[in-house]
Design a protein that fits this description.
There is one protein chain. By secondary structure, the protein is α+β, with helices and mostly antiparallel strands. It has eight helices and 13 strands. The protein has an eleven-stranded mixed β-sheet, with helices on both faces. Strands 12-13 form a two-stranded antiparallel ribbon. Helix 3 crosses helix 4.
Length: 273
């Protein structure tokens, strides 16, 4: 999963790797395109270094943390601007050979060009041509062939999407990403078809294993396709607006960000040395 996020570096994203903590920042104002990965069971990590990147860019970020022995011990949990986001099972499966469900008038279409990725992003985000559309399209296209983007089209109308990360440098596995369908067509096998298509894309690159984290809606589908839980991923959201509400003021200072409680700033007449 980290490799899939690090692939954004090809499009100009900031990517930093450490033994205990890794982070990437595309600069897009969406938490799913900026994030941090922390090795399970390592509470003493330099979270401030990662925070400075997101403070400087003024973008939200998801912090992905493996479950630790002591609930609430995650190092991001107590940071100003951080809040609980979700917990999902981490699942893996051999890509194998799965039958594509027979859904009348359904096509699963790979998209590669800008109009195709724009349609994919609109489906993924559930939105129209908002301010985040073009930056998100650039981030996904900038990663090059590391991602395969899939649209589900039912009777000529896009009704779902999925993606596969297939650029794994270790040549072991790929990731099934962003499987979703619009509410009106759920329960008809379209989510299964998208997942099978993503697994086939992973297999086509010579990779034998697929990994994903599952929402509650997708758990039944993934288990039926052979996915088993091997861990749990806890996620926290860090937001610059929430950090400001918590009393933190940030400003760029060359390559650094200075962060100080607002009481320090107003009480001392400026930013501390």
């Amino acid at each position: 999963m980290w490799q899939g996020c690090a692939a954004y570096a090809a499009g100009g994203a900031t990517v930093v790797q450490d033994d205990r903590i890794r982070w990437f920042a595309t600069g897009v104002d969406y938490e799913g395109l900026n994030g941090v990965f922390i090795r399970p069971g390592t509470p003493a990590v330099p979270v401030e270094d990662a925070l400075r990147t997101f403070q400087r860019m003024r973008v939200p970020a998801l912090w992905h943390v493996g479950v630790v022995d002591r609930p609430g011990a995650e190092p991001i949990a107590g940071q100003p601007g951080a809040s609980w986001y979700e917990e999902e099972p981490l699942m893996v499966a051999p890509v194998g050979q799965h039958e594509m469900p027979a859904v009348d008038r359904l096509s699963i279409i790979p998209v590669h060009d800008i109009p195709g990725i724009q349609a994919w992003v609109r489906m993924w985000s559930g939105g129209g041509d908002g301010p985040g559309l073009d930056p998100t399209v650039r981030a996904r296209i900038g990663a090059g062939p590391a991602f395969v983007h899939l649209l589900a089209v039912l009777a000529g109308v896009p009704v779902g999407c999925a993606a596969a990360f297939v650029g794994s440098p270790d040549r072991v596995g790929g990731e099934v990403q962003h499987v979703m369908t619009v509410p009106g067509v759920r329960g008809r096998g379209i989510g299964t078809a998208l997942t099978v298509a993503a697994m086939r894309a992973i297999s086509a690159r010579g990779l034998g294993t697929a990994v994903l984290t599952s929402s509650p809606d997708g758990l039944r589908i993934y288990r039926r396709l052979g996915f088993v839980q091997v861990g749990t991923m806890r996620r926290y959201l860090w937001s610059p607006s929430a950090a400001e509400r918590a009393g933190m003021i940030t400003r760029p200072d060359g390559a650094r960000n200075i962060a100080a409680p607002s009481s320090d700033v107003t009480g001392r007449g400026g930013y501390p040395a």
